[in-house]
UniProtKB/TrEMBL annotation:
Record-linked InterPro entries: AAA+_ATPase (IPR003593), AAA_lid_NorR (IPR058031), CheY-like_superfamily (IPR011006), Homeodomain-like_sf (IPR009057), HTH_Fis (IPR002197), P-loop_NTPase (IPR027417), Sig_transdc_resp-reg_receiver (IPR001789), Sigma_54_int (IPR002078)
GO BP terms in the entry: phosphorelay signal transduction system; regulation of DNA-templated transcription
UniProt key word Oxidoreductase: no
Recorded superkingdom: Bacteria
Coiled-coil residue spans: none
Response regulatory domain segment(s): 6-120
Taxonomy of the source species: Bacteria, Pseudomonadati, Pseudomonadota, Betaproteobacteria, Neisseriales
The protein's name: Sigma-54-dependent Fis family transcriptional regulator
Organism encoding this protein: Crenobacter caeni
Length: 479
């Protein structure tokens, strides 16, 4: 097995550093530093492929430190974490320092893992490129072209390879389509149910594209009211509206030369759709309250859990915007159509979730895996993730048995069966006692519905009047 890539983590806050370590320790060999000066000493002594640095540190800012790293160790791929969301100076400094990626706090574990995977891949390709440049100095032009094509193809495939699935999975078709379209600046629309992993695919598409060295930003269009969504995407000027105390750089501007992912695009208002259409047509944004337009170069990837064609037909989505966004549409299959992927996805999610619950050695029992595989997962991967978190919280040991699964997963129930199973699970006693409890409820429900007409109730229940009277007396229902 090849050695794990080496990554240096720099943060003066012990808890933040610990969170980074828990997220990355399974996939990388980690070095940690609590200050910029300590980090520079480690870089001088150790071979490191990537560095992740916090922006706010007492001795030196993250960006300033990474400028020094660029001068002394230019091959190391640089990533900065920052809590600032609208600071022009930081964004400019990030570009000046040649930083590979700029991640906002609070960072998402999957985002950080994918970013570092891309950084390590970039480091590998840089080393390979240096060797190839030496080897190909005397080679023929056609050989140079062939090697360059192979290298580009390997980068694209590595991004899609991180989408967890089994051989022959229905997800293969979506990944193959995205791999083909990745090198081209074409708008992509991802269609599929909520929770199927559309954002994960959008990130993989970004890292397989020629824009991989520039930012990827995401926004859920259904999570914000129209004015805030416009401000978040396009930015605003100070005083543009109540609460706008300073200028704000929007996501489109922060993602310049990168990718913008717009989730739940079908939930936007007609007014916002008109503004977004203009941005796509003109290639420029106008911050709220500004008289000046700003040119931006972004690739737009959008996603929806609704059929945009139907929304267009109903007059709730602009037809011209639909054709702009869906230049290349990809259908993402739900988890119930990918039964073979459930186990590897569950195990991958468990590896991510377990450290946060202080159970790094947690594993799924065979009986648990069987139950997970049999369930239809109407909430897709998001529901599966919630179920695994439940197991981690409720289980005492490292082996996660099926006894702590929710009832609908444990019994493979559909939505209509959940209430029934909830009742059955609450009935105490042995089998005979439980059956008598159910019989009492059935008799009582029938009598109440038929307004205590004993003749009709006896006929419906298949009893004689004497038999019905006996049960009413037995269960104390006669009165």
């Amino acid at each position: 097995m090849p050695p794990q890539p080496a990554v240096l983590l720099v943060d003066d806050e012990p808890r933040s550093l610990e969170a980074l370590v828990r997220t990355l320790e399974d996939d990388f060999t980690l070095f940690t530093a609590h200050s910029a000066l300590e980090a520079l000493d480690i870089l001088a002594a150790e071979s490191v492929q990537a560095i992740v640095a916090d922006q706010r540190m007492p001795d030196m800012s993250g960006v300033d430190m990474l400028k020094l790293v660029r001068e002394r160790h230019p091959q190391v791929v640089r990533i900065v974490l920052s809590g600032y969301t609208d600071n022009h100076d930081i964004i400019a400094a990030v570009n000046e320092a040649g930083i590979y990626q700029y991640l906002l706090k609070p960072w998402h574990p999957e985002t950080l893992q994918l970013t570092l995977a891309g950084a390590v891949e970039l480091f590998r390709l840089q080393e390979e490129n240096e060797l190839l440049n030496v080897e190909l100095k005397s080679s023929t032009p056609w050989l140079k072209e062939r090697v360059a094509h192979k290298r580009a193809q390997a980068t694209e495939n590595s991004a899609m390879a991180r989408i967890v699935r089994t051989a022959g999975s229905p997800m293969d078709a979506a990944c193959q389509l995205l791999t083909r379209v990745a090198p081209f600046d074409i708008a992509v629309l991802l269609e599929g149910e909520s929770g199927v992993g559309k954002e994960l695919l959008a990130r993989a598409l970004h890292y397989a594209s020629t824009r991989k060295d520039h930012p990827f930003v995401a926004e859920n269009c259904a999570a914000l009211p129209e004015q805030l969504l416009e401000s978040e995407l396009f930015g605003h000027k100070r005083g543009a509206f109540t609460g706008a105390y300073q200028d704000h750089v929007g996501l489109f501007q922060r993602a310049d030369r990168g990718t913008v992912f717009l989730d739940e695009i079908g939930e936007t208002s007609p007014a916002f759709q008109a503004k977004l259409l203009r941005v796509l047509q003109e290639g420029e944004i106008r911050p709220v309250g500004s008289a000046r337009a700003v040119k931006v170069d972004v690739r737009v990837v959008s996603a929806t859990n609704r059929r945009l064609v139907e929304l267009v037909a109903a007059g709730r989505f602009r037809e011209d915007l639909y054709y702009r966004l869906s230049a290349f549409a990809v259908e993402v299959p739900p988890l119930r159509e990918r039964a073979g992927d459930i186990v590897p996805i569950a195990q991958s999610l468990l590896a991510q979730l377990a450290p946060a619950c202080h159970k790094p050695a947690a594993r799924l029992a065979p009986a648990t895996l069987a139950r997970l595989s049999q369930y239809r997962w109407p909430g897709n991967v998001r529901e599966l993730k919630n179920e695994l978190q439940r197991l981690l919280v409720l289980s005492d040991g490292d082996e996660l048995g099926p006894e702590h699964l929710s009832r609908q997963v444990l019994y493979g129930a559909g939505e209509n069966e959940s209430a029934e199973l909830e009742f059955l699970g609450g009935v105490d006693g042995d089998l005979k006692t439980r059956l008598e409890t159910l019989e009492k409820r059935i008799v009582h429900e029938t009598m109440t519905r038929l307004r205590w007409n004993k003749t009709r109730a006896a006929n419906e229940l298949g009893l004689s009047r004497v038999g019905l009277r006996s049960k009413l007396t037995r269960y104390g229902l006669e009165q």
